[in-house]
């Protein structure tokens, strides 16, 4: 004779917590990351999203595919950008040669082969600082979102 959990009640609580986690991710973390994102990057800020999973099913957010779409965790959030330059903004780039196929035609070269060098760019970290800026509200937001769902 031991103590047994009510599995249905436990599933309802887990589902409510997952909903609370999504409230934090979508309503607090994503706007904070967007606020920390670099300015003058066109539509880049609109490409930052959050998808919350519970038992490898989406609780909220757009569908995600690829290697990050599964985890052994019960509840987890995937904060990401759909932009192809997101990782370059976050980590910066070193000075490098631009391949001829990617280079824009240089009229001044007048048909001569010309070496094109990109000077690189500094880092613009925004995911880490954006998430760290919300750390004081994580627990309260998740609890409030969970209470609203129970």
Structure description:
- The radius of gyration is 22 Å and the shape is elongated.
- It starts with 6 loop residues before the first helix and ends with a helix.
- It is built from 4 helices and 5 strands; from the N terminus they run H-E-E-E-H-E-E-H-H.
- Strand 1 (48-54) and strand 2 form a beta hairpin.
- It has 150 residues and is α+β, with helices and mostly antiparallel strands.
- The protein has a domain at 9-85 and 124-149.
- The longest helix is centred in the first third of the chain and has 30 residues, at 7-36.
- The model has no long low-confidence stretch (mean pLDDT 85).
- Helix 1 (7-36) packs across helix 4 (138-149).
What is the count of DSSP helices, taking H or I runs of 4+ residues?
Answer: 4
Percent of residues in β-strands: 5-15%
Radius of gyration: 22 Å
Count of DSSP strands: 5
**Based on the structure, what is the oligomeric state of the protein chains?**
single chain
């Amino acid at each position: 004779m031991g103590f047994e959990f009510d599995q249905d009640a436990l599933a309802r609580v887990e589902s409510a917590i997952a909903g609370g986690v999504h409230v934090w991710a979508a309503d607090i973390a994503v706007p904070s990351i967007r606020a920390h994102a670099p300015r003058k990057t066109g539509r880049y800020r609109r490409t930052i999203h959050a998808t919350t999973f519970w038992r490898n099913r989406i609780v909220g957010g757009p569908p995600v595919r690829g290697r990050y779409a599964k985890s052994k965790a019960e509840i987890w959030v995937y904060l990401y950008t759909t932009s192809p330059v997101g990782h370059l903004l976050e980590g910066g780039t070193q000075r490098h040669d631009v391949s001829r196929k990617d280079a824009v035609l240089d009229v001044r070269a007048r048909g001569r082969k010309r070496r094109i060098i990109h000077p690189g760019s500094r880092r613009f970290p925004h995911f880490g600082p954006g998430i760290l800026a919300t750390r004081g509200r994580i627990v309260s937001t998740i609890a409030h979102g969970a209470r609203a769902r129970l």
